[in-house]
Every structure is written in C-alpha cells, then in structure tokens.
From TrEMBL:
Residues 22-37 have a biased composition (Basic and acidic residues). This is Tetratricopeptide repeat protein. The keyword Signal applies. Keywords: Signal. Residues 1-21 form the signal peptide. Residues 21-49 are annotated as: Disordered. It comes from Polyangium mundeleinium.
Length: 420
C-alpha cells in the first residue's frame, strides 16, 4: 500500500472508531487536486448501487487475499470501508496489514482498523474475534495510545507536523514510537506545548489547561445558529476472551483448497552428473497447513566414469507442510527408485539393475499467485537415503565398484499450480 493511501486509511478509520479519535484536518503530503476518500457513516442507509459497489469491493479483496496479493486486498477493503462502516471488514483489513513487514505508518493504520473490530466485538465466530484481538494485542505493543483533555472545546490540537484536530474537550489517538510534539492553540491565549514519548506501547495522558483571560482583555464570543451535537466520551476497555469458557472451533479463514501442478525438476546426487526430468505435485491445504504429495522422475545428463551407463531415478514422497504468507516448509517421507542400464557395446553386455531405497527429507518452497486459480511455485528439498546404491563393473578378477550415492539427494523444481 502506498504511503499517501495509507494515510487516507488512517483518516478514515480514526473517524469510524466508536470512541472519538483524533480527526486529522490537514495532511502535509496531500495536494489540493488529489481526490479524498469519502468517510462512511455507520448510520446512513446505502442505496442499492452503493450496496452492490460495497459487495464488489469486498469480494475483490477476498479474492486478492486468497491469492496472497496483499497490497490489492488492502486497497479493495479500504475502498469498501469508504462506502460502508463495517467493523468485521475493518478487522479483516487489520489482519491483512499484519502480514506486511512492520512499518510505523502501517502500524498506525492497522491499530485503528483492529481497534474498531475489537471495540465492537466484530466477528462471525469466537475464532475470528480472537484473531482480531490477538492481532490488536500485537500491534498495541508497537504503538501508543494518547488521551488528550483540553479545558476549552474550541481549542485546536496539533499532533506532530501533519495532524491538526478540534479538541471538543477530549479525544484520543495512536502514536508511533519516539517523541511527538503536541500543542494546543486557542484564539487570544498563549499556545500550550507538551511532548509525548511513546515507548513499548504504553498509554499516555496529556492535559492542556488554558488560563482564564485577563478581565481587561476583550473576549471573542462566537454565537452559533444551531447547538452543537452532544457527545458521550467512552473510555476503551478490552478484555481477553476466556478460552476456558468456550472451546475455539477449528475454523479456517479461507475454504480448503486442492491444487495440482506440473513442471521441470533438476536432481543432484542420483548420478555422478545432474539429472533432469519433470515432477507432479498434489496439495490439499486448509488454513495454514497442508498435505503434499510429489512424484518426480529424472534422467542423468552424463555417463558414469566414461562408461555407457544410463541412470534413471524416480521418487514418490508425501508429508505435512506449514505455510507463512508466500512460503512453506515441509517434512517428507517416501521412496526412490534407481534404475541403471548398461550397454550393450563391443565391450559390455546389456545389463539392467533396479534398487528401491526409502528416503526421509525436508523441503521449502515459495508460491506466487498469478490469478485466483493459477500460481507459480519454486520448491527445493533434500532427502536422506537409508542405504547407499553402488554401481559395479564385473571383471574377470571380480566385481569392481565405480560409483556410489552419497546418501543425500537434492532437487529443485518449478511448477505451475492449478486449482483454488
């Protein structure tokens, strides 16, 4: 997500929170001709066209999230939130942002989004509500909440260099780590300044007290035609869910998926030279875990010690995998077949020898979503053979070994994966 667009999200979510948060009035980086996102009201009834537009943005965000296109998912969810206030969608946006590398501006946006979801107990299940709470708990350790009270509702409060808000007596906001200058200004009074230091996600309370004006000083009285809206200030209270009260169901954020793939593979250790072939992959994934099965076959690209010996190897392995964003790690077990063929020549006769060796291994891979149903994957694995395979040459004086495996096979494959 671009930095200016993240700032726009921060403005939107700060106004959507159930507790009055700081409303940035002007952003230093913005330009007069840049379009500003409209702020969604939680009480306004949407027209049928707006409702359809909202659903389309949410669906597009869900598809992008499923394909791991995180920037696109965050943008679509943000566009939807400018149309309609939805605490659960705010929590979902916060979860998407939690998958980005930590960044001060992203942390602020994520904190506001997750605060909306947590404060309104959003979520279709206790598992989803717990996800929102745990993500909010993590980001709260990286940002600080500051509560500001001013003894005049007309005072303007400046937070850093890019946020200026009307106090209306009291408000709160989130701050990035470090020191932030906060000042309060009021017509006819001397400016008040304080410095808030954010350390380890602590909460901060600042109070600005403007002294009463001198009796001889003329006072500026503003008469409004309509009375101001009365506001209720509610303090934030977040309670951790009681895990002993209700067992959490095993509920996936996305539906289970089955993928199949095919592509080339390069194998090292099955022959004196590298072997080239192809691989077939099948994978069943549920949430952050999956079960994968791989079948691959490869032919050696060279001979064995200048002798006309061809080596073919085929492996079939399967095992569980754990996923984190684009990456996965797997534990695999199976068997490898080695097939050696010699001759015939004027010196050697036709000879075929086959061995089946159990294997255990580990693998790591990375997957990039191209569309919602097609993705590209690179996978590397190392397998340990339970016994050696030796290539012998029979001579008049007996059998002479000329090459043997080194107990480890390494392979690298590239595959196109199909399926949702």
């Amino acid at each position: 997500m671009s930095r200016p667009f993240a700032l726009a999200v921060l403005l939107l979510l700060s106004l959507s929170a159930p507790i009055k948060a700081a409303e940035p009035e002007k952003t230093a980086q913005s330009k007069p001709d840049e379009p500003k996102p409209t702020r969604a009201s939680r009480y306004r009834k949407l027209s049928p066209e707006e409702e359809e537009r909202f659903k389309a943005r949410v669906a597009a965000g869900d598809r992008a999230l499923e394909a791991r296109r995180l920037n696109e998912a965050a943008d679509r969810y943000t566009e939807a939130l400018t149309i309609k206030h939805d605490p659960r969608l705010s929590g979902r946006l916060g979860l998407v942002l939690s998958m980005f590398l930590p960044d001060p501006q992203t942390d602020l946006t994520m904190a506001f989004a997750l605060q909306v979801a947590v404060s309104e107990a959003a979520g279709i299940s206790s598992a989803e509500r717990r996800q929102f709470f745990e993500a909010y708990e993590r980001v709260r350790k990286r940002v600080c909440r500051v509560d500001v009270m001013v003894n005049d509702v007309d005072a303007m409060v400046s937070i850093g260099v890019d946020r200026r808000v009307r106090s209306e007596g009291a408000f709160w906001t989130f701050l990035s780590p470090g020191k932030t200058d906060i000042s309060a200004t009021l017509t006819g009074r001397k400016d008040l300044k304080q410095t808030a230091e954010c350390v380890d996600g602590k909460s901060i309370f600042l109070q600005f007290e403007f002294p009463e004006p001198d009796e001889g000083q003329p006072q500026i009285i503003t008469i409004e035609k309509e009375p101001k809206e009365r506001r209720v200030i509610v303090r934030e209270v977040v309670r951790a869910p009681n895990a002993a009260r209700e067992p959490l169901p095993l509920e996936a954020e996305a539906p289970p998926r089955f993928n199949v793939g095919i592509g080339p593979v390069m194998v090292f250790g099955a022959a004196p030279s590298a072997s080239l072939g192809f691989s077939l992959v099948g994978q069943y994934r549920r949430q952050s875990f999956s079960v994968m099965a791989v079948a691959k076959g490869a032919w050696s690209l060279g001979d064995v010690v200048n002798r006309p010996i061809d080596i073919f190897s085929a492996s079939a392995v399967a095992g569980p995998c754990a996923h984190w964003q684009w990456f996965q790690g797997c534990a695999l077990a199976g068997a490898t077949i080695f097939d050696h063929r010699l001759g015939p020549t004027s010196v050697y006769g036709l000879y075929t020898d086959t061995h089946v060796v159990p294997t255990l291994g580990l693998g790591v891979g990375a997957t990039y979503g191209i569309t919602s149903t097609v993705s590209a994957r690179i996978f590397a694995d190392a397998a340990a053979l339970t016994r050696d395979v030796v290539v012998d040459i029979a001579a008049p004086g007996g059998t002479t070994p000329i090459w043997q495996t080194n107990r480890f096979l390494f392979s690298v494959s590239a595959s196109l994966m199909f399926g949702r």
